[in-house]
Design a protein that fits this description.
Largest sheet: 8 strands, mixed
CATH superfamily of the largest domain: Type I PLP-dependent aspartate aminotransferase-like (Major domain)
Strand order of the largest sheet: 3-7-6-10-11-12-13-5
Distance between the termini: 63 Å
Mean pLDDT: 91
Number of strands: 18
Number of helices: 15
CATH topology of the largest domain: Aspartate Aminotransferase, domain 2
CATH class of the largest domain: Alpha Beta
Radius of gyration: 24 Å
Number of domains: 3
């Protein structure tokens, strides 16, 4: 956009006048949250001012919390939500070992992916935000240049070319891992399942944050493992005092956590907490399986470190994937299993010999040419903007008692309704309007918690359809609360 030159005011320094002009454009809505501001060079030319004046004006706006700088990208209007509802309180699940009880079976969870529904339930990226054209071109090139290799069996650890590129990327999360220490998997879920299988036997206890990712619970139930659920803060993550109490019992065979922008809550532990967690693992001779699939989807600053970055005793099995950031269909994940890697590799070779070669070569080429980082910068901006729009819409349309999380990355929101609210009724009512949500009980190891909560996927680009769907959900929620009040009043007559 073009910004007209400034008429100088004698009693105000120039950079302050530039800052005031830009602030007015933000306040008036000309510059929307998430919009990129003109580059320093472009604004300097438009306003006929010096580079130092523009830089100082941007610094003022940054200090006022109106804009943010993104390395190698530029200055952006900060995402703000004027009337955000309160955050959920830290969770308080049952603090005892129990069998995993899943009340939603595979058929029901599959409906979250129904293409005929407005996709607010499944935590999937949307195809239009992914670099599919580039990947398709690279795939064709890979097949032409590797007509035999692309169709051959691969070993369980995967292609060296891809492992080299992934080892480089892991430096960004603080991990110094050699390519030989990595194994390529069919997405993150395979890595998680194989790690659990290598570490445990039926009847063993696994400690998980609560609420926790539904697929963790499916894997634990299939492997006949027991759960010990831990209280979790909506921003800071799992409660370390409760984790230490669990580890003290000596019954916990493994800990399973999402370290950065967890699903479904969106919490992200800071470095101090991650380091303390590793110290607990060392102290109590415990092993952590770390899921870091959302780590690249941070909104501001730099990529958060992995817990593995603080691992001094080979007690963290790390895994991640490109399903949330690049392509869910290529099924590229990876695992750094440390001393458990041989056992994990052996299990993988029994299941499927290895991951398909053509996708591995395609992704390694994409990573090596710098395309991934350019794509990630665009994806983060889109997700940050879409999450802010969703938060604002929920604040506008839902009952005042609603609570929502405020993640600093990823693409899921956790919604908490008042006690007594029946989220399964909301799920059924929303289905009548072809709207999908993910009921909170899906993320409860006991199947009895979070009956008043649900998860929403914010990876879908904002549109009138999405806005109307959120408005409809808000209407249904208000209607249910009103009916509950009337029922309560009738009972007292």
């Amino acid at each position: 956009m073009n910004i007209s030159p400034i008429e100088l005011e004698k009693d105000q320094v120039l950079y302050e006048q530039v800052a005031e002009r830009l602030q007015a454009l933000i306040t008036e809505g000309t510059l929307q949250p998430g919009h990129r501001l003109p580059s320093v060079r472009k604004l300097r030319e438009q306003l006929s001012v010096s580079t130092s004046t523009v830089l100082e004006a941007y610094r003022v706006l940054e200090d006022r919390g109106l804009i943010t700088v993104r390395p190698q990208s530029g200055y952006y209007v900060r995402q703000t939500v004027s009337t955000l509802l309160k955050e959920p309180s830290p969770t308080a699940p049952p603090l005892h070992v129990h069998d995993v009880d899943i009340i939603f079976d595979f058929q029901v969870t599959s409906t979250l992916q129904d293409e005929d529904r407005i996709p607010l339930g499944a935590a999937f990226p949307v195809m239009e935000l992914l670099p599919l054209a580039q990947l398709n071109r690279l795939m064709g090139k890979v097949l032409r240049e590797n007509p035999e290799k692309a169709h051959a069996y691969g070993g369980p650890i995967g292609c060296e070319e891809l492992r080299v590129e992934l080892a480089k990327r892991m430096l960004n999360c603080g991990c110094s891992i050699t390519p030989d220490q990595l194994m390529i998997t069919n997405g993150a879920n395979e890595a998680m399942y194989l790690a659990l299988q290598a570490l445990t036997k039926p009847g063993d206890v696994v400690a998980v944050e609560s609420p926790t990712y539904f697929t963790f619970l499916e894997a634990m139930k299939t492997l006949q493992l027991k759960a010990l659920t831990l209280p979790t803060h909506p921003r800071e993550g799992v409660s370390l005092p409760h984790l230490e109490e669990a580890l003290k019992t000596g019954r916990v065979k493994a800990v399973l956590l999402v370290s950065n922008f967890s699903n479904p809550v969106g919490c992200c532990m800071d470095d101090v907490k991650k380091k303390k967690l590793v110290e607990l693992l060392n102290q109590y001779d415990a092993v952590l399986i770390e899921d870091d699939v959302y780590g690249e989807l941070y909104f501001e600053g730099t990529r958060p470190k992995a817990i593995k970055a603080f691992d001094t005793g080979d007690r963290v099995i790390y895994y991640s994937s490109l399903s949330k950031t690049l392509s869910p269909g290529l099924r590229i994940g990876w695992c750094a299993g440390g001393p458990y890697q041989p056992a994990i590799s052996k299990l993988k070779s029994v299941i499927n010999l290895g991951t398909a070669i053509a996708p591995q070569l395609t992704v390694s080429t994409f990573l090596s040419n710098g395309g991934f980082d350019r794509h990630l910068r665009q994806l983060r901006r889109a997700y940050q903007s879409q999450m802010a729009r969703m938060q604002q819409a929920i604040s506008d349309y839902f009952p005042a008692e609603t609570r929502i999380t405020r993640p600093s990355g990823g693409h899921v929101l956790w919604i908490e309704m008042p006690d007594g609210f029946d989220v399964l009724k909301l799920y059924r009512d929303a289905s009548q309007y072809r709207i999908s949500i993910a009921p909170g009980v899906m993320f409860s190891a006991s199947g009895k918690c979070y009956g008043n909560c649900f998860r929403i996927n914010t990876a879908v680009p904002w549109s009138e359809t999405i806005d109307k769907a959120v408005e409809t959900l808000g209407y249904l929620a208000k209607k249910q609360l009103a009916e509950q009040l009337l029922d309560a009043a009738d009972r007292h007559l």
